[in-house]
Amino acid sequence: MGSFAKLAKRCVETEAPVMVKIQELLRGATDVMSLAQGIVYWQPPETALNKVKEIVWEPATSKYGADDGLPELREALLEKLRRENKLTKSSVMVTAGANQAFVNLVLTLCDAGDSVVMFAPYYFNSFMSFQMTGVTDILVGASNPKTLHPDVDWLEKVLKENNPIPKLVTVVNPGNPSGAFIPKPMLQRISDLCRNAGAWLVVDNTYEYFMYDKMEHYCLEDDHIVNLFSFSKAYGMMGWRVGYIAYPSEADGFHAQLLKVQDNIPICASIIGQRLALYSLEAGPEWIRERVNDLVKNRELLVEAMSPLGEDAVKGGEGAIYLWAKLPDNCSDDFEVVRWLATKHGVAVIPGSASGGPGYIRVSFGGLKEEDTRLAGERLRRGLQELVTDGMVQ
Ligand SMILES: Cc1ncc(COP(=O)(O)O)c(C=O)c1O
């Protein structure tokens, strides 16, 4: 059928998901090792998986649950938020992952036509969530090319001068795709600016446990701050679809409006997924940290693999599972480079332009075990060396 005429403009004008684009790009390519998707290589805690095996026949597992989440899980999460994140005044809603949490928030907090702020390189799904809900005035700030920290001076100006005043500012900490960690005083300044301007601040903490080199994650709490979390990476629960929103208990009407959105999208996160989340919490942060510690070696292997790009080209990796690397100046078509790396050298990465950073690539160090990371790294190194010396020779 010929045209897009009958489809929603909101959707048609939304970017296509980058992973789908990558799959199309790689069609026909064989033996490709992936450093592309943001995943971890481990499965959920064994004890937790064994426990969910026992509850598949319980009738309650197949029924709807409370929109907000299973009371026992919410209780455990409030305790975790208090203990680990020092969030004492937040309420919690369990969602089908942090992506759905973000959509919930956009629908709850923004009207079509509102202005919102994010910083490049940004998390592509957040960008798409704005686009597809009609929040098309997306003001994209730059990040410092050395530190990849958001340009807060620019934010200050925009929150004062833009008409309309942005309704919401969002950051991912530590970042996807940057892997950079925003220091506390900087996030505090962002928060103060938002508060003074009457804007919401949404902080995506999906990678809260993915911190390296003795850096410690933190959260901020205030009446204009919403924090997002995910079970996907920490507990290797990508396919179980469980995340949660910590939102200010004191904000009038927040819960009632959020509930309307939740009731119309998942109704509730899958019950068996929530149960697995609850049992996984028993394994606790130590279980996660043991696995995250192993990623340090992966990061080292891939930093080394990208050395042909030059000393200053590779950034990020302070947190999360990503390195962000600048391609040579004559490689502005990063999609082409990604296709070439996959088809000629058998290794897949994400093109930076999917995150508003053309001429860069995002490389994930979470998805493969050390031995496979080493192999993928060797392919990447060969590819990048050839790219730098001879260009994209077919
Ligand atoms: C920053 C960020 N937020 C959210 C998500 C999605 O998480 P979930 O699986 O919980 O929806 C991802 C996954 O890559 C992510 O990187």
UniProtKB/TrEMBL annotation:
Keyword Protease in record: no
InterPro entries: Aminotransferase_I/II_large (IPR004839), AspAT/PAT-like (IPR050596), NHTrfase_class1_PyrdxlP-BS (IPR004838), PyrdxlP-dep_Trfase (IPR015424), PyrdxlP-dep_Trfase_major (IPR015421)
GO molecular function terms listed in the Swiss-Prot or TrEMBL record: pyridoxal phosphate binding; transaminase activity
Entry cofactors: pyridoxal 5'-phosphate
GO biological process, one term: amino acid metabolic process
Keyword Transferase: yes
Aminotransferase class I/classII large domain ranges (all copies): 30-376
Pfam short name (any one): Aminotran_1_2
Keywords: Aminotransferase, Pyridoxal phosphate, Transferase
Similarity-based family: Belongs to the class-I pyridoxal-phosphate-dependent aminotransferase family.
Protein name: Aminotransferase class I/classII large domain-containing protein
Organism in which the protein naturally occurs: Triticum aestivum
Organism lineage: Eukaryota, Viridiplantae, Streptophyta, Embryophyta, Tracheophyta
